[in-house]
Amino acid sequence: MNSNERVPVVSKEVLVPFILITSLFALWGFANDITNPMVAAFGSIMEISTAKAALIQFAFYGGYATMAIPAALFVRKYTYKKGILLGLALYAFGALLFFPAAKYEVFGFFLISLYILTFGLAFLETIANPYILSMGDERTATRRLNLAQAFNPIGSIFGMFVASKFILTALDSEKRNEMGELIFKSLDEVQKAVIRTHDLAIIRNPYVILGVVVIIMFGVISISKMPKRAKNDNPGSAINSFKRLIKNSKYREGVFAQLFYVASQIMCWTFIIQYAGNLGIYKAAAQNYNIVAMSIFLSSRFISTFLMKYIDSRKLLTIFAVCAMATTSGVILIEGIEGLYLLIATSAFMSLMFPTIYGIALHGLSEEDSTLGAAGLVMAIVGGALMPVLQGSIIDMGNIGTFDAVNISFILPFICFCFIAIYGYRTWKDHE
After folding, report:
1. How many whole angstroms separate alpha carbon 193 and alpha carbon 206?
2. Mean pLDDT to the nearest integer, 97-117
3. Distance, CA of 132 to CA of 145 (rounded, Å)
4. Alpha carbon of 325 to those of 112, 134, 240, 258, 422: distances in Å?
5. Can you tell me the distance from the alpha carbon of 184 to that of 195, in angstroms, rounded to the nearest whole number?
6. SS3 of residue 409 by DSSP
7. For 137, how many CA atoms within 13 A lie in the half-sphere containing its CB?
8. Is the residue at 402 inside a domain?
């Protein structure tokens, strides 16, 4: 442990590139968490079911599954920097597509825009995570990635803030009468069309501005000098790398652990609005609870990074997963504001999971295997595409026996945390 303390997490030589790449974590955090509340928003504006509105998440996280492997193959042939620039270009293009999507008012067009946007995010995450790991000593790699990942929730909080203060509160479709009922549902089709045009423009604007910001970031990185990875003139067959990765149980199980983690994170953050709505809390106010959850997540990320100096990361992952199981049990069983508080508290225990699973799964892999290995872990983000749709279908049931379906739906994150706890325990005991 003392050797860890003598090695800097980030050396002075790579500090500027580290800061630039770390800023990308905030950029995709913003995209993630301005998009989560859009499930509820599109459900109201387009008058569609929760399950259909959750296709927003299917499109968003489906882009990761589609583009992660191509991103890894691209960076094997070219450089980290070129891969990041291509990712930023795709990110900006997808964000700017929100302009024509809002003009034509077609839900499927928005889904395509998000799908392309996440092509860019898949490039950025596939490349930025192993790039950060490579920027220094392997002994501090997991701590370095946790430090960089700590800036992801900063972007997320800003995304939630924009969604809460500039989108959800500005939607005419969310205005209510004295009885607290949505006015939109009682209007005729002509009036609804006017409101729909207004509200889709409100949703469009932050994404278009985001596209411009990403273009600026593209310019900054394109003129900046970035460290090169060690040159490998004969990287070997990608097929052989895949075979080695599949045989590696620590990596293989890590991909599934990552899939279940992302699924649980997206479910807990996407449907906090529905959970709060079941308690009579409006969407804009419910989004404030999401901001609190993300603030807790951010604080816990820094705390857990510090704790890793003294506690093995595998052991800490196991402890946090068990605690998350406990809080989600309360979310399921307690019908009231206390259940909402436990749902918010779950974010504290999710904080270290993504970068820690990532670091554990890639630990010890060769340079040529780690790039494709990173792609597999990014592809696991597809969990965020599949599970929210299933949870939305459960919520649409209204009630299950004597329980509200919203409460019962959180059995899905509970199951996910069970798997993560098992993975943490196995790697702590078996693979150490």
Report:
1. 21
2. 95
3. 6
4. 35, 33, 38, 16, 12
5. 8
6. coil
7. 13
8. yes
356 to 127, 279, 318: CA distances (angstroms): 17, 34, 11
In whole angstroms, give the CA distance from residue 426 to residue 407. Answer: 30
Task: Work out whether the CA dihedral 221, 226, 231, 236 comes out positive or negative.
Answer: negative
Count the domains in the chain. Answer: 1
Q: Which residues of 71-101 are buried (b: 16+ CB within 10 A; e: fewer)?
A: bbebbbeeebbebbbbbbbbbbbbbbbbeeb
What's the CA gap between 107 and 39, in Å, rounded? 11
Token pair belonging to 380:
């696991």
In a domain, 233, yes or no: no
- 154, two tokens: 């900063």
Range of the domain at 96: 9-227+238-429
Q: What is the pLDDT of residue 362?
A: 85
Give the pLDDT confidence score for residue 1 in this predicted structure: 44
Which CATH number belongs to the domain containing residue 149 in this structure?
1.20.1250.20
Task: Give the bridge partners for 403, in sequence order.
Answer: 400
Residue 60 covered by a domain: yes
DSSP string, 117-186: HHHHHHHHHHHHHHHHHHSS-GGGHHHHHHHHHTTHHHHHHHHHHHIIIIIGGG-GGG-B-TTS-BSGGG
Q: Let me know if residue 1 belongs to a domain.
A: no
Please, is 40 exposed, middle or buried when counting C-beta atoms within 10 Å of its C-beta (0-12, 13-18, 19+)?
buried
Average of per-residue pLDDT across 367-396: 82
Q: pLDDT, tens digit, for every residue of 280-327?
A: 888 778 888 888 998 899 899 889 888 888 888 899 999 999 999 999
Q: Helix, strand, coil % (nearest 5) of the chain?
A: 80, 0, 20
- The pLDDT value given to residue 2: 47
Using 50, 70 and 90 to split pLDDT, how confident is the model at 257? very high
Q: What angle do CA 365, 369, 374 make, to 5 degrees?
A: 90
d(CA 177, CA 183): 6
Per DSSP, what are the bridge partners of residue 182? Answer: 176
